[in-house]
Amino acid sequence: MNYRQLGKWGIHLSEIGFGSWLTLNNHGQENADSLHHCAYEAGINFFDTANVYGLGHAETLVGKSLKSYRRETYVLATKVYFGFDPDWPFPKANDRGLSRKHIFEQCSASLKRLDTDYIDLYQCHRYDQRTPLIETCHAMNDLIIQGKVLYWGVSEWTADQICDAVELCEYQSWHIPVSNQPLYNMIESHWEDDVFPICAKLGLGIVNFSPLAEGILTGKYADGIPDDSRAADEEAGQFLRPRLTEETIEKLKKLKQIAVNLDISMATLAIAWCLRRVELTSCIIGASRPEQILENIKASDVTLNETTLSDINAILVGE
């Protein structure tokens, strides 16, 4: 496993991070332990979750799974923004967003579920249009001052939103965001043009999620939608099926052939393609089986040459 510095900051993350969203497919602690222990023993030191995953259940699974390891040996990240309390008898007006109230309450709840004294990287899961940015930045700074959080970051924020937050924090002498977590993969690379350059300029590290586009870039859909796949499931595949157009499937066939020629899996190819960007610190993968983790981490040792990257680009732009 190789490690990269998180932007301009001193902390280093494994090039492959492990996210907990997919562990919810099986829910059990035994399965979560197997996956997290496999990831840790393979050299992954970056573990990402969110308070909303499984309505808090994912954080509990992650906290218990990592409890057997020394806390200083891994980087633990979670997120705040979405509301999720299903047991409340009427809508909770403040159970959402990035207000000081919601951030402080959810940070305390996450610390309890994760069973830890501090969160390494606390991320704003989305931008909150309803809350003044100064309130959000001030709250994050205070959590760091209190020792509950070491670094804070954002997810899916635009270039302008990131610039505004950094400028505000610098003016106030507050801790600035250190990272951005965007959706980024071969078929969804829309953040490259503006967000990537801004992150590089301001020193934010990028920890992208969905480098395999929820399994699309594993190669399993190169010949259509298998009956036993997630895309075939009526509920689980509702966000996948619209992305599996004829044009995309044709691209998948060509990309799979490149992987075959390189004697690597298509998943390895897709993650290595993401890691070609120097602005990117870590690719967050998901998995339901340990062997998927072991396959995906191979990308950390794969460097794609210029010819291969040119061939991939030609496929992606439809040449």
Give the structure's gist in a few sentences.
The chain is of the alpha/beta class and 319 residues long. The protein contains 10 helices and 10 strands.
Describe the structure.
It is a single chain. The protein has ten helices and ten strands. The two termini are about 35 Å apart. The protein has one domain (about 5-220, about 280-290): NADP-dependent oxidoreductase domain (TIM Barrel, Alpha-Beta Barrel). Helix 4 crosses helix 5 and helix 5 (about 160-170) runs parallel beside helix 6 (about 195-200). Helices cover about 35% and strands about 15% of the residues.
Quick tags:
319 residues, alpha/beta, two-stranded antiparallel sheet, 10 helices
- Rg, rounded, reads 19 Å
Number of helices: 10
Distance between the termini: 34 Å
CATH architectural grouping:
Alpha-Beta Barrel
Helix content: 25-40%
How many discrete domains? 1
Structural class: alpha/beta
Main sheet strand line-up? 3-4-5-6-7-8-9-10
- In CATH's first tier, which class applies? Alpha Beta
CATH topology type:
TIM Barrel
The description of the largest β-sheet is:
8 strands, parallel, barrel
Overall pLDDT confidence: 93
Helix/strand order, N-terminal first: EEEHEHEHEHEHEHEHHEHH
- CATH-level-4 superfamily name: NADP-dependent oxidoreductase domain
Based on CA inertia axes, which overall geometry fits? Answer: globular
Total strands: the figure is: 10
Beta-strand residue percentage: 5-15%
Q: Which stretches are low in confidence, meaning pLDDT under 50 for 5 or more residues running? A: none
